Amino acid sequence: MRQTRSEMIKALRQTLGQSEETEHVIDWVQDAWSTYDHLSKLIGKAYACQIMEATDEEDRFIELEEGVSHERPFEYINGCLLN
Q1: Rounded to whole angstroms, how far apart are CA atoms 50 and 22?
Q2: Which helix (H) or strand (E) holds 33?
Q3: Which of 72, 80, 2 is nearest to 40 (CA)?
Q4: Helix, strand and coil percent figures for the chain, each rounded to 5
Q5: Coil, strand, or helix at residue 69?
Q6: Which of 44, 24, 23, 32 minimizes the C-alpha distance to 5?
Q7: What is the mean pLDDT of the chain?
Q8: What does the pLDDT read at residue 30?
Q9: Residue 52 in contact with residue 39, Cβ under 8 Å?
Q10: Partners of 69 in beta bridges
Q11: Average pLDDT of 32-56?
Q12: Which long-range contacts (CB under 8 A, 24 or more apart) does 66-69 make?
């Protein structure tokens, strides 16, 4: 079962500890959620999820063997669409 946003905030505070930096991170997470919610209303959840989970070009590749990189599978990059 997926955690609620409130549960995630509580877990962040427990993991990162009580600090000003933690509260800044939580603010960024809440901003990201607001952005996702707005995008979902404008263009639908599936496409909003793709946008929010888009990777930098270098993150598309995984190293399976030392020195050998392979592109991550489409299902991995778009994993939120499969859930």
Answers
A1: 26
A2: helix 20-43
A3: 80
A4: 65, 10, 20
A5: strand
A6: 32
A7: 80
A8: 97
A9: yes
A10: 63
A11: 92
A12: none
Name the DSSP letter for residue 19. Answer: S
Alpha-carbon span 83 to 78, nearest angstrom: 10
**Which among 17, 28, 25, 24 is positioned nearest to 52, based on CA atoms?**
28
pLDDT, tens digit, 9 for 90 and up, residues 5-35: 999 999 999 999 999 999 999 999 999 999 9
Residue (of 48, 30, 28) closest to 39 by Cα position: 48
Report the amino acid identity of residue 51.
Answer: I
- Judged against a pLDDT cut of 50, whether residue 82 lies above it is answered with no
Q: Which two tokens stand for residue 34?
A: 């607001």
